[in-house]
Inverse folding.
């Protein structure tokens, strides 16, 4: 509830819109507004993913510039935020294409294609950050990135796991049946692949929980 209120307040202040050049707003202020909005965006997408609820704002209503590159970064915080934003944008597209009311009306063929395309998007993104972090490495075996703290590394990994769950879980839902489909043989490999990804991701996520230190300062998300 508090996160939703924060997003609504940000929208009411126009943080989701890119300021016009005629406003003559200082560049550092624009950067701060942009960073604040995208942090709220990331939080909103994580809450939406975990609760099964729609995001508080649609991507089509956002014109605020998102970070387009991971380098150069001013600090570990910039690197961490940029990675989280990019993963959250994929997560948002996964919701729209797989879990929204409109997506639930699509055919099995369209669903299979959407899952494959979104997974390919994840793979391409992993390649762009491979010089910083290798998400294919198990969390407890991953060398500590120079530009990230341990807490940030854990957050990135679990956000990545969440994105994979969002993309591949629809093919594992009890009501998703392809047995009677004439194209079952065509769909079956993708369903098997999604099941394998979910099982593998669940396993590494459980093992990764050993590194999570819980105390009074640990955030809920």
């Amino acid at each position: 509830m508090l996160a939703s209120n924060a997003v609504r307040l940000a929208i009411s202040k126009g943080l989701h819109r890119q300021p016009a050049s005629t406003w003559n707003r200082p560049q550092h202020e624009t950067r701060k507004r942009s960073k604040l909005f995208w942090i709220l965006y990331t939080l909103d997408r994580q809450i939406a993913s975990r609760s099964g609820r729609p995001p508080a704002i649609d991507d089509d209503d956002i014109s605020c510039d998102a970070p387009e590159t991971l380098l150069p970064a001013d600090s570990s915080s910039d690197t961490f935020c940029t990675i989280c934003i990019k993963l959250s944008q994929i997560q948002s597209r996964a919701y729209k294409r797989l879990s929204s009311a409109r997506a639930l009306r699509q055919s099995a063929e369209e669903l299979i294609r959407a899952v494959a395309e979104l997974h390919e998007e994840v793979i391409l993104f992993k390649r762009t950050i491979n010089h910083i972090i290798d998400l294919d490495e198990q969390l407890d075996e991953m060398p500590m990135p120079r530009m990230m703290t341990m807490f940030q590394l854990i957050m990135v990994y679990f956000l990545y796991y969440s994105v994979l769950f969002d993309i591949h879980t629809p093919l594992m839902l009890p009501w998703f049946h392809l047995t009677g489909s004439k194209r079952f043989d065509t769909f079956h490999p993708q369903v098997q692949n999604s099941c394998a990804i979910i099982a593998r991701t669940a396993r590494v996520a459980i093992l990764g929980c050993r590194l999570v230190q819980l105390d009074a300062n640990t955030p809920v998300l």
Summary: The chain has six helices and no strands. Residues 16 and 46 are 18 Å apart (CA to CA). The longest helix spans residues 27-51.
